[in-house]
Specification:
116 residues; 25% strand
Length: 116
Amino acid sequence: MRTILTAETTYAVAYPKVGYTCTLSDLDGFGGGEPNEHQAMLINSGLASGKRYGFVFTLFGCSGSPATSFHLSVAPNANTFGRKAFCADQSGVIRAAEDGNAATCVASGNMAQSTP
């Protein structure tokens, strides 16, 4: 999560007319060419796929032009029993939901102790 949050901040500074992105693939782009708003080369392709370490990573809620906000949710890929969901926004504060549900985290998550 911290890698994506840092990449979002870097992206918004590098592309001020765009602001934050809600597309993980925009943060990727390794493999050729110069960095641009559609291949910023800030995270690896495995993370940009949206599935890593048994979790699904999702960016959403970008608003404004340029986008001044976003949400990142990280939910268990399969069985949620005993696994937390995590979420954050442009503030960088990471929250967690004990029920493994990303929507619960966004609505009322608690400060996280550990994150994926």
